[in-house]
Design goal:
alpha/beta; Aminopeptidase; 10 helices; transmembrane; metalloexopeptidase activity; M28_fam
Length: 350
């Protein structure tokens, strides 16, 4: 009864206003629909977000209790601690800590025996030209590769940004999880595949300027060190060591559905909860996060190169001075690193 009364009142109001202002009925209906849409929009977004979260959590649980020990995790942890140390002071691009990180990474690539793949040995110096990054001098990627046994195959490009926020207002932003964890895993994988050569050529790219616009990844293409047709897949590693409910997000299979099957197989081999998602547009998932353009894989995706981005959800230490080596979860980080090894092995075999 009340609903009918409200409808009658609205109808009478519309008729009166139409007569007074001579506005067509269809235009008034358009206003009403637009108003209802605006009123219910937050509710619809929230419902879509909840549905997406349910979809993620409905994915298979881990089937493995513990990952094997194939990587030199002791060495990997030592690398992480150094990258997140006082000496490197947050590895800010253009700051002394960032320059030290470049030279140290080039030395590590040399010790591992990677083939230099930069424009100046292992380094690829460049100068950003827009935004805050253009004020930063001394930016450079550190690049090395392992030749595959089948040179006819396209390469796999493994990326992890080594820069972080550096020293800001007198505080060091150490960046242990973001992204010393990804760079230390990159080095561990390089050591493994130097010992056990892959089928595909692997490019190991420690990238600069991720925090200020993904310039390092962008310059791989703008300086033509890479061409999209040469690449089978980008595997990007960014924030791997904070245990947030034992979850590791794998981004990319929405855009490249052919990746879903190997990623599902990867879950069957991993003790970590692998969630395929964080890559769907707002019209599908509402306010749920979309990480499609949130890290260096963006520059590969913009050029239609398939990518998988592995990372953990944001946490309390994200972009805070408290993102230190003491606050990571070593066992979770080890299991994630072994999972990434399995990922590279799966994609190399396919």
């Amino acid at each position: 009864m009340q609903f009918a009364l409200v409808c009658c009142i609205v109808f009478l109001f519309v008729r009166i206003v139409m007569k007074l202002f001579r506005i067509p009925l269809w235009l008034w209906l358009l206003f009403v629909v637009a108003g209802l849409g605006y009123a219910f929009h937050p509710y619809l977004l929230a419902q879509m977000m909840q549905m997406e979260q349910k979809r993620l959590l409905a994915q298979p649980e881990p089937m493995v209790e513990q990952m094997p020990e194939r990587l030199d995790f002791g060495r990997q942890m030592a690398d992480l601690r150094y990258l997140a140390s006082d000496e490197l002071a947050g590895r800010g691009t253009g700051q002394p800590g960032g320059a030290k990180a470049q030279q140290w990474l080039a030395a590590e690539f040399t010790h591992i025996g990677l083939v230099a793949a930069g424009t100046a040995g292992y380094l690829q110096p460049y100068q950003p030209t827009t935004g805050k990054a253009q004020l930063m001098k001394g930016a450079a990627n550190v690049l090395g590769r392992i030749e595959g046994s089948d040179p006819a195959l396209p390469m796999l490009v493994l990326t992890a940004h080594y820069d972080h926020l550096g020293v800001h207002q007198g505080k060091i932003y150490f960046g242990a999880d973001d992204n010393a964890s990804g760079v230390a895993a990159l080095l561990a994988l390089a050591r493994y595949f130097k010992q056990y050569p892959p089928r595909h050529t692997l490019l190991f790219a420690a990238l600069d300027n991720e925090e200020t616009g993904m310039w390092g990844a962008r310059m791989l293409f703008e300086q033509e060190l890479l061409k999209p047709e040469q690449i089978k897949l980008n595997i990007n590693m960014d924030m791997l060591s904070q245990n947030t409910q034992q979850q590791l997000i794998a981004v990319g299979s929405y855009h490249y559905p052919e990746l879903e099957k190997p990623l599902q197989q990867l879950q069957q081999q991993s003790s970590v909860r692998l969630l395929l998602g964080y890559d769907r547009p707002a019209w599908l998932v509402g306010t749920h996060q979309d990480w499609t353009f949130s890290s260096d894989h963006r520059e590969f995706h913009k050029r239609a190169v398939p990518f998988v981005y592995f990372g953990v959800p944001d946490h309390a230490h994200y972009h805070q001075p408290s993102d230190t080596a003491e606050n990571i979860d070593p066992e979770f980080y080890r299991e994630v690193s072994e999972t990434l090894l399995d990922a590279v092995l799966l994609f190399d075999a396919s």
